[in-house]
Write a structure and sequence with these properties.
Strand order of the largest sheet: 3-2-4-1-5
Radius of gyration: 19 Å
Structural class: alpha/beta
Helix content: 25-40%
Number of helices: 7
Shape: elongated
Oligomer: single chain
Number of strands: 10
Length: 243
Amino acid sequence: MSSRLVGVGVGPGDPELVTVKGVNALRAADVVVVPVMDTGERGRAEATVSHYVTQDKIVRVVFALNERTDRARREAAWDAAGERVAGLLREHGVVAFATIGDPNVYSTFTYLAQTIAELVPGVVVETVPGITAMQDLAARSGAVLTEGTEPLTLVPVTAGSAVLKEALAGPGTVVAYKFGRQAAEVARALRETGRIGDAVWGSALGLPEESVRPAAELDGAALPYLSTLIAPARRDGGRGGKL
């Protein structure tokens, strides 16, 4: 029987936002892999998973989660992590990989699955969707993501502030991920496009250090790397105006 690698989205941090299907997948797996940086500190995925499975079932695997400039180092880390998970799949029938948010939205799981497909022929790869940071921030701030025919654009600010500014010039809601280190540039883009008034940002959602604030309060200081921004669409047509 083929081994299975299951990417499980465990949400943005609040353990209550893991779906029932996600919890069942974590508990049904033989082992649960959680990604950690080479510095070794406990990550958000591990902290969430610990609410649902015992520590002896959790396997910490180092990934180059914060490596963006040295491609060779990053890919070497992916290869090493892939070899580690491939070894687990040879020992166990079902290995779950816990990822914050959703495994198909800017997730390390994507790269892991590609590596495993080459290392373990016949492996079955599955994913369990998770609640994303933009959904959680919308709920906590009261921001409406989309109405009627409005588009929704998701931008990782690691791609550059010019990409964000282009999106903000459009008609729909814009969500920015990973913008903390470029908070000053993001605030500038919001002001230049006239979108700062209704925009909100949040970090550490669902955790004791949670912060949810109007984007107008951005003062240029760096924010946590995983900060999320929502700039709602311009809505001036009344209820149902975008239908």
